[in-house]
């Protein structure tokens, strides 16, 4: 009986150490351990996309993950596929995310929601709505524009570019830098 109490105390201490106190962030190990599992990444991605909802039903979460894993629409997910995901979420993944303070998981109601500390995963799981531009898309556009202008200037395709290529390259670089600053300050704000 003494061994059981000791094991229980060790588990409580472990859980208390992994849950960050209010206002603190997760350890790097916790972040990377969480992100190392594909199913947890998918669960976090879905929860981040539904951040405005108070809670998400486990059924919806498991159905979405099953659809992602099987490359089908949510309507095409079979009972067996959904149940397999649901069981692993119920038994393993959501309790671990809850223990680490990343989600609030109500096992009895079958609901889950993000905690404020979950914003630490936004950078890693860059999720954008259809109307938002992601940083990767933005920087790709800047890179393509810069390369195109450089190639056109080098080849002399546009005579004006080849005559003033140095001045133009500096002007374009400054314009690209200014647009990146504007994008970061206006478009990159958290809308919540």
TrEMBL record:
Keywords, sorted A to Z: Membrane, Transmembrane, Transmembrane helix
Gene3D superfamilies assigned to the protein according to its UniProt record, in alphabetical order: Winged helix-like DNA-binding domain superfamily/Winged helix DNA-binding domain (1.10.10.10)
Pfam family for this entry, one: DUF7344
Region feature (Disordered): 1-31
Residue ranges occupied by any DUF7344 domain in the UniProt entry: 32-113
Residue spans crossing the bilayer: 138-161, 167-186
Protein name stated in the entry: DUF7344 domain-containing protein
Organism of provenance: Natribaculum luteum
């Amino acid at each position: 009986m003494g061994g059981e109490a000791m094991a229980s105390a060790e588990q409580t201490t472990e859980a208390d150490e992994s849950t960050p106190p209010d206002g603190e962030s997760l350890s790097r190990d916790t972040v990377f351990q969480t992100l190392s599992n594909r199913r947890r990444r998918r669960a976090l991605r879905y929860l981040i996309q539904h951040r405005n909802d108070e809670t998400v039903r486990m059924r919806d979460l498991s159905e979405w993950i099953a659809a992602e894993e099987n490359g089908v629409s949510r309507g095409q997910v079979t009972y067996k596929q959904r149940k397999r995901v649901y069981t692993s979420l119920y038994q393993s993944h959501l309790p671990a995310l809850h223990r680490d303070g990343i989600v609030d998981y109500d096992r009895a109601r079958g609901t889950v929601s993000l905690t404020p500390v979950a914003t630490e995963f936004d950078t890693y799981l860059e999720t954008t709505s259809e109307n938002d531009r992601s940083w990767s898309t933005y920087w790709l556009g800047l890179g393509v524009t810069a390369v195109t202008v450089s190639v056109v200037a080098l080849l002399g395709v546009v005579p004006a570019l080849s005559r003033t290529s140095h001045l133009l390259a500096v002007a374009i670089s400054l314009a690209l830098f200014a647009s990146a600053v504007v994008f970061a300050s206006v478009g990159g704000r958290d809308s919540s």
